[in-house]
Write a structure and sequence with these properties.
Order of helices and strands: HEEEEEEHHHHHHHHHHH
Helix content: 40-55%
Shape: globular
Radius of gyration: 21 Å
Structural class: mainly alpha
Number of helices: 12
């Protein structure tokens, strides 16, 4: 396996679009990728090395991270400014992400890509794709609990994107593919009635252009979801329904982030002679969330606090 890995991997020099640092990333040769099967949520299973582990590039200098095909071209000038300003205080000690990767180091790359996406306020569909890829890696290592957690986040973000967003990412995926993926993620999470409903929306829309392979997949999974729905309690438990929460992003502050927040509070005390109260910090965060997701349609900050259990 080690010999196979050495032959399959090669290095490529690139330049970070944020800090302009030059560095080397490791990639998998396409000639070394042997497909075993394609799973129902578009995960491709390979025989030896999995290109998925290397699909996210991370700058070792500023720690900007993104999918390889979006690393450079996926950023606007405004994105670069945000990342250049907000990434340095969050810089953390990381494992080797630039040579041969393990599922664990690949998952760390996913988390760093999510951090960069949050900072630049990337579309929900971009976040969904990152969570979906993370779920595939958890599936590979047999962590069912985290696989389902990431599938759930991906599902909610795809739903939000489909209902609220309009961007090039949605156009690239295609309406039918996004709808199918929402249905299939619902099925995997045990939401069989929702899965059937999403599949049916595609099949009943005669004006929707659906490629033949996807059409067959939709019909197959529609039948599977219907059978699972009939079995009821014999299947997996239904995912808990949560009203007015189309997007749920779990963020845990690491040591460096916590130290940075403490630094901001201390600087405020030095400049203004007054401490920033916890409630004020929470209020600002909540108001930013309310501005980012106005569809929540909450009437007060207190309602949003209750919804997010702050």
């Amino acid at each position: 396996m080690i010999a196979v890995a050495k032959k399959a991997l090669f290095e490529q020099k690139i330049t970070c679009p944020v800090c302009e640092n030059g560095f080397t990333i490791t990639r998998v040769r396409s000639s070394a990728c042997f497909v075993l099967r394609r799973e129902s949520d578009f995960r491709v299973k390979y025989r030896d090395l999995d290109p998925l582990l290397y699909s996210i590039w991370v700058c070792p200098n500023c720690q900007y991270a993104n999918m390889e095909n979006e690393f450079v071209k996926g950023l606007s000038e405004n994105d670069k400014k945000k990342l250049k300003t907000e990434l340095p205080p969050l810089k953390s000690s990381e494992p080797d992400l630039w040579h041969e990767r393990t599922p664990e180091t690949a998952l760390r790359a996913v988390h760093l890509a999510l951090r960069s996406a949050i900072i630049r306020q990337a579309p929900a569909i971009v976040m969904a794709g990152l969570f979906l890829r993370g779920s595939w890696i958890f599936r590979e290592i047999g962590n069912t609990e985290m696989e389902k957690e990431f599938l759930g986040k991906a599902k909610r973000l795809y739903e939000y994107s489909f209902e609220k967003e309009s961007n090039r990412y949605l156009e690239q995926m295609g309406q039918a593919r996004v709808m199918y993926l929402i249905g299939e993620l619902n099925r995997k999470l045990g939401n069989f009635d929702d899965a059937v409903r999403w599949f049916s929306r595609i099949l009943s829309n005669r004006n929707m252009v659906v490629e033949p392979d996807l059409q067959r997949l939709i019909r197959d999974q529609w039948e599977v979801a219907r059978e699972e729905h009939k079995k009821g309690s014999a299947g997996e438990p239904q995912e808990e329904k949560k009203e007015m929460k189309p997007v749920e992003i779990s963020i845990v502050l690491g040591h460096e982030q916590a130290e940075w927040l403490k630094h901001v509070v201390q600087r405020s005390f030095e400049y203004h002679g007054a401490r920033i109260e916890d409630a004020e910090i929470i209020k600002v965060i909540i108001e930013l969330l309310a501005e980012k997701y106005p569809d929540l349609a909450l009437k007060s900050v207190e309602e949003l606090k209750n919804l997010l259990a702050v």
